[in-house]
Structures are given as C-alpha cells and as structure tokens.
Specification:
heterodimer, A: alpha/beta, Enzyme I, Chain A, domain 2, Glucose Oxidase, domain 1, TIM Barrel, globular, B: alpha+beta, 3 helices
Chain lengths: 554, 94
C-alpha cells in the first residue's frame, strides 16, 4: 500500500473499487474530408446540445445551470463556424471539430484562472461532438453497477452534475483545482473528492482506494487496519465538528471571534452564508488589478457594497490597497525597486499617492453607510505610531469610525504600545511578520523552514504585539494562515489574540479546538510554545499538552 | 454603421452568468451584433466563447455594432443590458 497526495476539495472519507471514466474518442488518423462535412458538423453539435438540454429536466437547479451552460457552448457559432472552416479547408469532420476545440481552449488557457478552468467545458463539448460525428457512444461515466470511486483525467461538468450519489462514493481527478466544476459540485453533493492527483493515471478498474477529501490523501490498496483507523478518525472528527457551532469561545467563555479571509464578491457570498462572525481580512486588490485606470468612487462603492451585503450586522475588516513593486498597478507604479518586499508597498505607496487611498476610503465609507455591515478599515505595512496616526486620521476624515493597522513589521509589533494607542484595532499578518522577523524571503521555497509560523521568535513578536493591544484595551486579531491551524489558534488565544481570520473551511476545527480549552490552558500552551528551542519542538509541545480529543482528530 | 459605447456594469465582469444572459439576448436579436474593446477586433455577440475570450472586466468600455433593420433598437437594448449588474441574483456556478 502507498499514500499519494492531491488536493482535497470535498471532505469525507470514501473507500471502494475504482471505476475509470471513459477516455474520449480520438479523431481517426488521416481522416478524409467529407463533402457533407458542414451539415454533419452542425448535426453533431446540435445532437450534443439537445442531449444536454434533455438531461436538465432530471437534475437540481445547480446541475441544470451547468448543463445548459454546456449546451450553450455546443451551439456556439464561433466553435461551429471554426470547425466548418477547417472542414472546408480539407480536414475530416472529426479532425475539424477537434482542431476548432483546441484553438479556443488555448485562448482560454492563455487567459488563465477562471477561464483556464472553463477550458474543460469546451473539451467536453468537443469530445462529445467528435463521438457524435463519428457515430460512437459519448465519452464519460460508464453505466455503474455498484458502489465505486470514480477516477478521471477530469470530470466534465455534465458528468459531475448527473452522478448517481448512491453509487459514487468518491471522486479522484488527475487535474483540476479548488474552483473547478468537479470541486464545486462534489462539495454540493457531499461526495468526498480529491483533485490534481498526478497518480490518477496509474489507477485502473477494480483497484481499491481510500480517499480522504479533507486532507487530499489517497491510499492505494490500504490495509483493513488503515481503513478502520481512518474511518474511526473521520467519524470522530465529523462528530466533534458537529458538536460545536456559533461564536468562537474558550471552554470558560472568553470570546475569540472566528472570521473569514476573502478576496472578492463571490468569496463574500460564500462566506456570508456560513456559521462565522464576519470577515477578518477583505483583500481589496482585485478591485484594482482588473482595472486599466484607477476605479472611480462610484465603481468601488458598488463592489464594496456587494461584498458587505452578506454581512449585515457582522464585522468586515477591510485592508486598503496592498500594492507595490512586486504587484505593480498600471496607474500606481513608482518604478522598479531593488528590494520590493522592503520598498514602497502597502501604506508607503498610499502615502505617495494619497488620492488613491482617499478614493478608496470614500467608497468604503459610502458602501458601509449603504449596508448594515460593521466596517473596520486597516492599512497594510505600518511601521510606527506616526504612520498609524496618519492613516487613522485619513480614515476618520472619510467618515469611517474604526481605523486599524496590520502588524506585519516587527517594529510595529515591538512598539505596539504606542502604535495601538493611535488606532482602534490591530491585525497580525503572520506570513509577512515571519518573513520580516526571520529575514527570509517568502518567495524563496528553500527558506520555508525559517518561515514556519511556529518559529519561537515569531511567537515572541506576536506576543509583543498582543501585549501592546492589551495595554491600550484594543482588540488584536490574526489574519495569516496560522490562524487556521487549530493548535496555533490555541497558542494565539493564549497570547491574548481576540480574533482569528482564516479560510472559511478551517473555522469548524478551530472553533472545536477553542471550545475544548480554558483561557488559562491556552496561556499555558502559549508558554510551552514560546519556551521551545525550535519550531518543531514548539508544535510538538503543544500537541502533547492539548486536549486528547483534539489531538485524536488532527 | 450604428455603434454604442458602453461600460460593463456587472461586478464580476462579462463572464459566467452575465455573459450567458447577454449572449442569449444577442442571439435573439433580429440583426447580427458584434462586440469589441476599443481598437480591438470585433467578435460575434452571439458567441459565448468569443465573449469569454474578450475578457471584458467590470468598468471596462466595449463597443457594440450592428447594421440592418432594427439595429438601433437592438443596440440600445443590448447596451442597457451590459450597463446593468447582471450578477445581482444569486449565481449558480457556471
């Protein structure tokens, strides 16, 4: 038996025999041109579209929307005309469809991100049309005869949308990402899924696998003991997570707010629907990165209002524009720098271009007034009390009541007593804080060990920031990745951190961890971590001393 | 030739649901319509693929062009559609 690692996108455990999804039909080599190619190509695409449309009647709304969107691609004049043009130029009909499909897929892939993932939809339409024009059965999921784990290069949306939940225990795909259709639908259907598993190509029908959709691990031919152990742990975890809900608090009732990190309107809608207390980090860069010129107050107001709307009555902490030489904007470019991480980025850029900041603050203020969200605004890359005061004044001048600062620079953490006197709250960005404390570039993969958030020196700097906040009676949160680590969350709570902001999927486990410990126990765990000599020792000490019920499900 | 310049009003840009609604409306129009970024190549407005490849973002300007009977009215309707936020309703993954 062996274990391979993919990306877990839909939690849960699945154990069963593999069924591989049919490989698409390839166009024949040297396919001859056909005189009636145009009508055959049109008929093939129309047959595909009709088939997809007919399936929408039997599925739920989400699946129906995906099927109709795919049907729309099959009726797309650009795709059909592209295929006909190739056939007219002498290609065989299947070869022509394949060529046109690839041409548009390449265009989508070149656009990247969202579009690159939509290329899968096109490939599916192309493959179906090729099978249709050749008179072959459509590619995809074969008829299922029992419980199984589906393994595919990538599942087409039309396949995922019509899966039989009672038979499909789990899904593995070789490619894909967190926002691919497979991921979205598998999560909605509650089917455990792992994507981007390179070893998927080696799996064949009848192989037995264990899929952990939480961790992304896939066990090949696991022993009975492993399966039993994993099942037990999975059940314990599920039960544990279901046992807590609502606001984050320690066992003895000290509040530690559980918040989400978001980067756009869609994130806000998703997080807004979840059991969490608001947003601890709203990154606003997307508003600017997608624009050729500085967006106007009106344009920004609209976007911010869309983000705030799902959080009526809850807190949304906004980070003002965090750009710089490594993330240059066309309209806010101060030129190349030798050392962008230490250059004019974050608040330093805003100080050079105050109009840009004022426009953003005005838009945030208007959107806050238009929605019922409790909007807090913080600046990235604040170094000292004077910068904090400058930012706080600008925030208040724009009608926003709650200015704050990101604590990413060790100087600001060490002098938090003075920095925090100028603002209403602070938020530790632990990724940058680790980079600056350890003088280790985040972009250098080889330095990952130095950037470990468990580095005792980083914990010391966090402790200093937390103490400065306590002295001033101000809240201090953490919005780096470490906030989503349940063990680290206990340490942070013990240091006096009052909110934890993380990827929404991490919230239930962190909530559970907090609920199993008193504040005094958290403080003791924090002491153990800070007393350790190395990051590995620090984590180990906390793991050994934490509640055994928590340790058992990690 | 009748032309309209319009600023994209959907906060997610012209893809996913907003693009689908626009393409459907363009496909139902009595005359062929093209869409282009300023100075760019015109693409058929009834093609989802072409619209997605255009990659028009929120706040960006695009030009609609059509010719024939009903072109003016068609362009007015499509321009109005692009200028509104078509993503207001809850969105299904597309």
């Amino acid at each position: 038996m062996s274990i391979v690692q993919g990306i877990g996108v839909s939690s849960g455990l699945a154990f069963g025999p593999v069924v591989t999804v049919g490989k698409p039909v390839q166009p024949p080599q040297d396919e001859a041109a056909a005189a009636d190619a145009e009508s055959r190509i049109r008929d093939a695409f129309e047959a595909v579209a009709t088939d997809l449309d007919s399936r929408t009647a039997h599925v739920d709304d989400t699946a129906a929307a995906i099927l109709s969107a795919t049907a729309m691609l099959a009726r797309d004049p650009s795709l059909i005309d592209g295929a006909i043009a190739r056939a007219t130029a002498g290609s065989g009909p299947a070869t022509a469809i394949d060529g046109a499909t690839r041409e548009f897929m390449e265009q989508f892939a070149a656009l990247g991100g969202y579009f690159a993932e939509r290329a899968t939809d096109l490939r599916d339409v192309g493959d179906r049309a090729i099978a249709s024009v050749l008179g072959q059965p459509a590619p995809g999921v074969p008829p299922l005869t029992g419980e199984c784990v589906l393994v595919a290069h990538d599942l087409a949306p039309a396949d995922t949308a019509t899966l039989d939940r009672s038979q499909v225990l789990g899904i593995i795909t070789e490619v894909g990402g967190r926002t691919s259709h497979t991921a979205i639908l598998a999560a909605q259907m509650g089917i455990p899924a792992v994507v981007k598993l390179a070893e998927a190509v080696n799996l064949s029908d009848g192989d037995v696998v264990l899929v952990d959709g939480e961790t992304g691990e896939v066990h090949l031919d696991p022993s009975e003991k492993t399966v039993a152990k994993r099942r037990k742990r999975d059940k314990r975890r599920t039960d544990a997570l279901a046992s807590t809900s609502g606001p984050g608090r320690t066992q003895d009732g000290k509040q530690v707010k559980l918040l989400a990190n978001i980067g756009g309107v869609e994130d806000a809608r998703e997080a807004g629907a979840l059991d969490l207390e608001g947003v601890g980090l709203f990154r606003t860069e997307f508003v600017f990165l997608s624009a050729a010129s500085a967006p106007t107050v009106e344009e920004q107001t609209k976007i911010y209002a869309d983000v705030f709307a799902p959080f009526e009555g809850r807190r949304v902490v906004v980070r003002t524009l965090d750009a710089g030489a490594d993330k240059p904007l066309a309209f806010a470019n101060l030129g190349a720098e030798e050392n962008p991480a230490l250059g004019r980025r974050g608040l330093r850029l805003s100080a050079e271009l105050p109009d840009l900041l004022d426009t953003q603050l005005e838009a945030l203020s208007r959107a806050a007034a238009d929605t019922g969200a409790d909007v807090w605004v913080m600046a990235p890359m604040v170094a000292d009390a004077q910068e904090a005061a400058w930012f706080a004044r600008r925030v208040r001048e724009n009608g926003l009541r709650t200015p704050g600062v990101m604590i990413e620079i060790p100087a600001a953490a060490l002098r938090a007593e003075h920095v925090m006197a100028e603002v209403e709250f602070g938020s530790l960005g632990t990724n940058d804080l680790a980079q600056y404390t350890m003088a280790a570039d985040r972009m250098q993969g080889e330095l990952a060990e130095l950037l470990d958030p468990w580095q005792p020196a980083v914990l010391d700097v966090v402790a200093s920031a937390a103490r400065g906040a306590v002295i001033n009676g101000r809240p201090m949160g953490v919005c780096g990745e470490s906030a989503g680590d349940p063990l680290m969350a206990l340490v942070l709570a013990g240091l006096g951190i009052t909110s934890l902001s993380m990827a929404p999927s991490r919230v239930p486990l962190v909530r559970y961890a907090l609920s199993r410990h008193t504040f005094a126990q958290c403080a003791r765990l924090a002491h153990l971590a800070r007393s350790a000599r190395t990051p590995v020792d620090a984590r180990q000490a906390v793991l050994e001393a934490c509640d055994p019920d928590l340790a058992a499900i990690l | 030739m009748p032309t309209r310049s319009v600023t994209i009003g959907s906060s997610v840009g012209l893809h996913a649901r907003p693009a689908a609604l626009f393409v459907k409306a363009a496909a139902a129009a009595p005359v062929p319509v093209t869409i282009a970024k300023p100075g760019g190549n015109p693409a058929p407005a009834n093609s989802m693929i072409a619209i997605m490849a255009l990659g028009a973002k929120f706040g960006e300007e695009v030009q609609l062009t059509a010719e024939g009977d009903g072109a003016e009215q068609t362009l007015d309707e499509l321009a109005a559609l692009l200028a509104t936020d078509l993503d207001e309703a809850t969105e299904a993954p597309s």
